[in-house]
Design goal:
By secondary structure, the protein is α+β, with helices and mostly antiparallel strands. It contains eight helices and ten strands. The protein has two domains: about 170 residues, ATP-grasp fold, B domain (D-amino Acid Aminotransferase, Chain A, domain 1, 2-Layer Sandwich), CATH 3.30.470.20; about 70 residues, Dna Ligase, domain 1, CATH 3.30.1490. The chain is about 35% helix and about 25% strand.
């Protein structure tokens, strides 16, 4: 499993300099991290086939080596609920430079968190947990630990978030499934340790957490560039 993941990262580094979303999701799946049901659709027919299998609503994201921050340039469409909207979205995405298809995936809802990792030149791999989505830029509510982490570390990280009450259920909202989040964090930190010599950083943003699942809806993986990288987490909600 680890060798297959390293091969994906190596190929991506050679071709693009970073790991595009479909390959990043393949890596997460291989590692045992929950992701939405998805399809890398390179044609309209493939997108329609996935919609027929999965059902609506769906989300769509452009796949292009020229587009790293998809949401900044209109490369993300959510709430697609019929074939006409799906085809219109595909047509829009096809105009992006370097277009290599789209990711079509199931829609997941829940509290948005960010899970990230960088390789510190002194301490090695470190992981981050925080309030995610666009909120990460506003509130900058994050906690950092050295990797790997265990279940007690995850519990401590959650408690240190200023927004921890949102995870535990607040004013009528249901608490998230802490076992699912803990499993994601522990698995993710183990993956980061295994890949410490091959990556610069990994960001999972957003991670949708609800009463059933913790799902990495998007991932950005930057391969190692042959230089020492300090772990100064840039607080960014860009996807």
């Amino acid at each position: 499993m680890v060798s297959e993941i390293k091969n994906i990262i190596s190929r991506s580094a050679d071709k693009y300099g970073w790991v595009m979303e479909p390959d990043a999701k393949d890596i997460l799946q291989l590692a045992g991290i929950d992701v939405p049901a998805y399809r890398w659709a390179k044609t309209k027919e493939q997108a329609l086939d996935f919609a027929a299998e999965q059902g609506y609503p769906l989300a769509m994201k452009v796949v292009s080596p020229q587009v790293l921050h998809k949401s900044d340039v209109g490369g993300v469409i959510v709430g697609i609920d019929n074939n006409e909207s799906l085809l219109a979205g595909f047509e829009k995405m096809s105009r992006f430079e370097g277009f290599a298809g789209v990711v079509v995936e199931e829609v997941i809802t829940g509290l948005e968190l960010i899970v990230g990792a960088k390789i510190d030149y002194q301490f090695g791999p470190v992981v981050m947990l925080g309030l995610g989505g666009v909120s990460v830029e506003i509130y900058q509510d994050t906690v950092i630990r050295m990797a790997p982490v265990d279940s007690r570390d995850v519990e401590s990280m959650v408690k240190k978030l200023k927004a921890h009450r949102l995870l535990e259920g607040f004013r009528g909202t249901k608490p998230i499934n802490m076992a699912a989040l803990t499993n994601l964090m522990v698995t993710f930190s183990g993956l980061v340790v295994d890949l410490a010599n091959h990556i610069e950083s990994i960001d999972l943003n957003p991670v949708f957490c609800n009463e059933e699942r913790s799902v990495a809806a998007d991932a950005r993986i930057l391969p190692a560039q042959g230089m020492k990288v300090q772990a100064d987490f840039s607080i960014s909600g860009k996807k």
